[in-house]
Amino acid sequence: MREELQQTKDKLEQANSDLSAWKFTPDSQTGKKLMSRCRTLLAENKELGLQISQGKISQLEAELALQKKYSEELKSSQDELNEFVIQLDEEVEGMQGTIKVLQHQLTAAKQETEEYKSKLAAYEQNGDVLSENKPFLNQSREIKSKIESADDFNREIKKSET
């Protein structure tokens, strides 16, 4: 019986709540309480929203600062690499100039050698090796030997270039 009484009281209370909600007006006591509670909840929601957005903003600001720092490091590294490449380019240009000069000298030496070879061959063929020409003949043979060594060296350089 007590149980039935309790159930009946609960039903009555629920019915009164439903009736109050149905009769809700902003001027009624329940309406005023509900409106006040809504305002309080809205203020709390607004405050929580600000806290959440400020947390996200500060996190994004920290990430942005890290990205800026990383970007600056990359720029600095790129500048160093550019300077190094420019320096290498200048060195390569200097070496190319030196190589051209050496190639020109080698070509001139080859022509001179060919002249000496032909003169030497003519002397040896004719047997015209006079005593006064013997130093020239010995010098020509030494030059011929040096040129052959230079030719071997030049071939090695060409092999290493390819």
TrEMBL record:
Entry coiled-coil feature ranges: 92-126
Biological processes, Gene Ontology terms: mRNA modification; mRNA processing; regulation of alternative mRNA splicing, via spliceosome; RNA splicing
Recorded GO CC terms: nucleus
Localisation: Nucleus
The keyword Calcium is annotated on this UniProt entry: no
Name recorded for this polypeptide: Pre-mRNA-splicing regulator WTAP
Keyword Nucleus in annotation: yes
Predominant localisation class: nucleus
UniProt similarity note: Belongs to the fl(2)d family.
Protein species of origin: Ciona savignyi (Pacific transparent sea squirt)
Any single Pfam family the record assigns to this protein: Wtap
Keywords (A to Z) from UniProt: Coiled coil, mRNA processing, mRNA splicing, Nucleus
